[in-house]
Amino acid sequence: MKRRILTGIRPTGSLHLGHYAGALKQWLELQDEYECFFLIADYQVSDYADDIEHVRRSVWEVALDWLAVGLDPQRSHFVVESQVPQHAELSVLLSWFLPLGRLQRNPTLKSEMAALEESKHSVPVGFFMYPLMQVANILLPRADLVPVGEDQLPHIELTRDVAERFNRETGVEVFPLPNARLGTVTRLVGLQGDAKMSKSLDNSIDLKDDAETVRRKVMSMFTDPKRIHRTDPGTVEGNPVFIYHDAFNPDVAQVEEMKASYRRGGPDAIGDVEVKKRLVKVINDLLEPMRERRAYYEAHPKLVQEALEAGSAAERAVADETMADVRGALKLDYFARGMPKAAR
Ligand code: TRP
Q1: Residue 245: which of 234, 226, 258 has the closest Cα?
Q2: Is the CB of 109 under 6 A from ligand 1?
């Protein structure tokens, strides 16, 4: 039997190059070696409760982007969280094994809650609970491995703690302790290079952007602000255009040559415009097959729906097994045990 992977994304918009470099690219490679559960975490959108239409559209957008990059629903399970209500049940039961203070100290949650407090002036309890739901996501299929970005590491640590405590306190080894797996690029910067790529910051190149949009966005990217003329020696480190070349240009020799020329400066040195033009090509070459696959699935929505339904059904079956063990370990299987004899 293959070892299992679970990983997920919240349905809050279509996906961009940051998702690809930080996550999807790794997922693609793991599909043969592992049984993969790719989750659309639509229970974890309490911060979008005032825009459910957006969430609803995003469920389809995410599914289309997954198919576009080449994730394969024949091999992997595409799961919609709310179609597997055992996620909710397991979250409640696991909450017994998660000390309040442990959640309150989670650094990723803390900073996200502070941002939410700032923008919306209140934080729903559902938001506070999302790391717990993520723990349930991972433990429900008893995943061995969780490919994620760096910011998610505290949640994996939390998952191990909860699993370990559940096993210890019930005396039944229900859950394996999962491991995180980081990608090579864990956090791609946005077009201006100052923050991580994010749709809400309007600094992203989306996987579904057309060739002209990609050209316009790349030509507008920030580079080395101190290099005014191509004769000036330039800086490559932290320069967004080179960060992208490193992340996406398969021609490593070309990238090294450009960097050397850029650093050197002088009358024959490569200029920003040329570096960007080559980047436009690199990104469009990467995205073109994705656009084609996306167009195919947009024209065949039934196939998208079938992928989501089949993946969710597959996880429900696995979830039934886990939940039977969980209820057994917690002795919630009242009717299998029957009424106890009155205490004497
Ligand atoms: N919280 C993750 C994010 O914001 C998404 C997610 C939900 C997830 N459930 C998960 C990731 C389970 C890994 C495993 O990116």
Answers
A1: 258
A2: no
Specify the pLDDT at position 183.
78
Nearest CA to ligand 1 atom 6: 8
151 pLDDT tier (thresholds 50, 70, 90): confident
- Looking at ligand 1, which atom is closest to the CA of residue 81? 9
Check pLDDT > 80 for residue 344.
Answer: no
Structure token digits, residue 39: 């989750």
- E strands, the chain, are 4-9, 35-40, 77-80, 145-148, 179-182
Q: Where do we find the tokens 């609970």?
A: 129
- Pairwise CA distance, residues 54 & 47, whole Å: 12
pTM listed for this prediction: 0.94
Tell me what pLDDT residue 84 has.
98
Alpha-carbon gap, residue 277 to 219, rounded angstroms: 7
Cβ of 138 less than 6 Å from ligand 1 = yes
Per residue in 245-272, pLDDT (tens digit) is 999 999 999 999 999 999 999 999 999 9
Q: Is 146 in the pocket of ligand 1 (CB under 6 A)?
A: yes
Distance of CA 149 to the CA centre of its chain: 7
